[in-house]
Amino acid sequence: MGDKIVITGAAGLVGQNLAILLIKNGYSVVAIDKNRNNLQLLKKVNPTAKTVLADVSVHGSWEDEFKGAKVIVQLQAQIAAKTIDPFITNNVDSVRNVLDACKRYKIKNLVHMSSSVVISVANDDYTKTKRVGEDLVEKSKVPHTTLRPPLMFGCFDAKHLGWITRFLERFPIFPVPGNGKFMRQPLYVVDMCKIIVSAIKKGPTNRIHNIIGLERIDYIDLIKIIAREKGLKRLYVNIPLLLFGLMMNIYAFLTRKPPFTADQMKALVAGDEFPIENWQKQFGVKYTTYENAIRETFNSPYYKYRDEMVSPH
Q: Is residue 24 part of a domain?
């Protein structure tokens, strides 16, 4: 087997796709995650990967997996929760523990997955804790490359556009917050994974890179393109933002894992437009348009596993 790559938070959207790509590129993959179901799915799709069930926000034997690793790819994150505590645990404490293990085993390349929310106008718990986590990496002496992606989508998406796709398939009416004309700059997860592989090969830049989708697409158009690719005719009902937010709060109160929270709705309508860098040139990865990426996702041999993924939060 090739060089050893350790992925923390490996069983989410990015990790599932990344493990496939790394193994295809000849690397030896160690996947660490606390979500038993999704980790078992990763092993099912990638039998040669070593899987470790562990919570990296707590020190433990998982740290020994860093020994001899060429690169650590840090993906774990808390995106939605009802209180701030899970955000601190999974976006701050876990990052600190990974950095400690990197220092102990003298890791020479850490790829840290941050988020475009750190430069957002939003000021929710997710945004605040992602900023802290990114700052910890930047101030550490661990050689690193920090990547800031926006909303991502693709195979193994149990949230976001994956959840929207399921809703569209099941119901003839789709509720839309406000007029739905909220600009997004989404990124295909396969493009993100190709960038990570490039960052592994290039070595640490000790810089932050904004990896933003190159198209500006309204939220409502993201949904309509999914419906069109699925051959679905749907009625879109516009709901005033205050009422939509109230509905999200009620839903969050009644369920343990709301797919779309009021805080996420606020971030949606905040009006962010993220700066676009020439990451295609920096990392040698060609951008996949949203429409082509949606089509590729629905026709991927891995799309059949979508119902086996569970939302980790």
A: yes
CATH classification of the domain holding 129: 3.40.50.720
Q: Taking each helix axis from N to C terminus, what angle separates 160-170 and 219-230, rounded to the nearest 10 degrees?
A: 50
Report if residue 172 sits inside a domain: no
Number of domains in the chain: 1
The CA distances from residue 271 to 44, 117, 151, 222, 285, in Å, are: 40, 12, 14, 16, 28
Per the CB < 8 A criterion, the answer to whether 274 and 185 are in contact is: yes
Angstrom distance (rounded) from CA 69 to CA 5 = 6
Please check whether residue 232 lies inside any domain of the structure: no
Beta bridge partners of 50: 30
pLDDT one-digit tens code per residue, 136-170: 999 999 999 999 999 999 999 988 899 899 999 99
pTM for this predicted structure: 0.92
Per residue in 33-50, pLDDT (tens digit) is 999 999 999 999 999 999
